[in-house]
Amino acid sequence: VSTMNAKTSSAGEEEASGMSNETLGEAKRRQVIRVAYVIAALDLTFLFMQMGLMPYLAKSLGLDSVGFGYLQTIFGVLQLVGGYIFGRFADQFGARAALILSCASGSFFFLLMSLSTNIPLLFLSRLPGVFMHGIPGAQKVITDVTTPSQRAGALGKLGFCFGVGIITGSVVGGVLSTKFGVYVPTYVGLVGSLINTLIAVVWIPSQTKPKSDHHRTEHSDLFSIREILRLMKFPGVMEVFIVKVFAGFPIGLFMIMFSIISMDFFGLEAVESGYLMSYFGVLQMVVQGLVVGNLASRFSEMTLLRLSVFVFACVGLGMALMRTVWHYCIIAAPLVFAFSMLATITDSILTKAVPSSDTGAMLGICASVQPLTRTVGPTIGGVLYKQFGVSSFGYLQLMVNLGLFVYLLKSKIPLEEMKSQ
């Protein structure tokens, strides 16, 4: 069906793509998308490898919990600032160049980690994180080579890569650090990121680039508040972006505090927490690989956006009432569905609502939502957990998403699909 849609897509849809049918054949486009999936899966695997070993590496260097919090905050701020800059870079120099930059930054990141024999070097190793945006880079490639009607399904399958990254990265990182030493995963990450860079150089075509040199010279700054405001003025963009930010914010606070909640509230050991993360990874793979794409091909994006917000509200009620880890395992299924659907649909809507020459910047803005939550989340989440307990996250989730659901039902968000830049 997707092949027939691609062959019969309108000229307007082809113009909105970074590469038209005349530039890339259907088989070649599918190959490029598969390569983007591979790069994203490897990138996430290496990222989760280092996330698992970071507490142990920091502890071995004498960094206390407060210092480790500062380390995580610095990485979140760098990702927050770098998301939009990376997106603008992709618009000006092409998705291929942006993906190569991300993979090369990952190599430099792991190189510095492997040399981190003291605390200052460990903090220095966070700096390349400003350009480490493998998922937005892959999203930009996919956005360029798909027609608007194909985009939601293709972007949705990236979540499958996320599940692979969680499971593989957590397991491999734990095994390597336990059996061979805490620095061994950094060596694997360094070699793997170099291989990822080579894959991007060889297999991502150079035609993945902006189509308008005029736009490139007119808006040449990599970071501009004026440019962000310009994108937000397109019909429906501000409304959908607000829903994207606030719908997932309460659950984002919960996930930031999850390591503490899993120990204090659920009474889990480290190994059991790892199993729970793997369970999340499997759910992510199933939902993104089998559910999101099928629903995106059958229902309108606005319908799915309303559905994801409504399910988020139901999840909030479940979280407010949960008492055991088994309750949480039941809630996890609709939680992963709502999270995956919200991310995929909003990214698809927002990239279609702006000119094709601005899709990278829009993806960069979308990618900054999670780093923003990681930056402000520890303080807000800590206060909520200490003062009101775990149920407060659920009640906040319920109230915010019920309000958003009513807003989406009553308001008619003007969504206009841009056909040109």
UniProtKB/TrEMBL annotation:
It is a multi-pass membrane protein. It is found in: Apical cell membrane. It holds the Pfam family MFS_1. Residues 1-21 are annotated as: Disordered. One of its GO terms (molecular function) is transmembrane transporter activity. Residues 29-415 form the Major facilitator superfamily (MFS) profile domain. The keyword Membrane applies. The chain crosses the membrane at residues 35-57, 69-86, 93-113, 158-176, 182-204, 240-263, 275-296, 303-319, 325-346, 392-409. GO terms for cellular component: apical plasma membrane; nuclear envelope. Keywords: Cell membrane, Membrane, Transmembrane, Transmembrane helix. May act as a transporter of organic cations based on a proton efflux antiport mechanism. May play a role in the transport of chloroquine and quinidine-related compounds in kidney. Plays a role in the regulation of lipid metabolism. This is Organic cation transporter-like protein 2. The lineage of its organism: Eukaryota, Metazoa, Chordata, Craniata, Vertebrata. The gene is Slc22a18.
